[in-house]
Amino acid sequence: MFNNIKILYLAHYAPNKDGENNRVDIIHKTYAEYHKRIFEILSLHCGNVISSNDPKIMFDLPQDVDYIFSLYNRMPFRNSEIFVSSVAEYYKIAYLGARPNIRALAEDKHLSKMMAVYAKVPTPKWEIFSVGDQINKPPFKGPYFIKPRFGAASKFIDENSICNSWDNAKTQIEFLYSQNQDVIVEEFIDGIYYTSPVLNNFNDYIFLPCIKETSQLKGNVVTYRQKRKVDGGLFRDVVYDQTINKIIHQYSQKMYGLIQPLDYTRFDYIISKHDSLPYFIEFNVCCNLGEHSTISQSSKSLGYSYEDTILNILASSLYRNNLLDKRLYHF
Fold this sequence. Notes:
single chain; 331 residues; alpha+beta; four-stranded parallel beta sheet; 9 helices; 30% helix; globular
């Protein structure tokens, strides 16, 4: 189907040239399965796929690579999220996702919330603290929600992230400092999480049905381990209530035009139990594309198979990058 396009598939658990994968621990087992499944789909439909699990390949790219399908989200150095896209831009090679500036915007919860304010989308009050900064009380009342300013996947988030007093909040900030994490302190919103997936779909944008996330933990907190299916207690359900979908989609549409061009994204909200309003939390431009991801779950509710969803994202990205002249797998 895409035989004339030479694709580099780059992911932490992608097979290398010898067919070997990085070793998998229990926390990343679901990601390893996800990366393997994507490789199988690409290999089935693309006649010329090179696979690597080592981001160093970006320094010595194979000849004539036309396109990079990268799921490499984070590497062990600061601001690594923009590494692949930045090097691809240097070599002028098309790639999946979004440009480095948009990816950086998504990774910085402070800047993404400023975007929400600009777009007149409600978001919790917040304050930021860089490692080593003096910890002064923010100009809003608790309870507070403490988390890293950068990154995704709920790393360092658990029930301790909810702090009813400023003394507890300071303790949690100091803990994140000890992990070399800059911090964002949010006004805690007691409510339920909703995520709003969006596909580029050949510039015919499709706002998929929202997914409701409920956790059995205090304050409906969703943790890193829950997202990786190591711990239970996290439940995801497609939202069929069109009133909720309409309200959230209206907010997502206000921000979507500000982060172009990109291939797929997910806007996260929490609907307050107090005033029933959705409050924007963050957005993600390299969100999970696994079979059990919110994007897959949402598209399946519309009758699209997992394979068709991945091929829609791939073909749409190739089309956006002028590597495909037909709208294959258009939703």
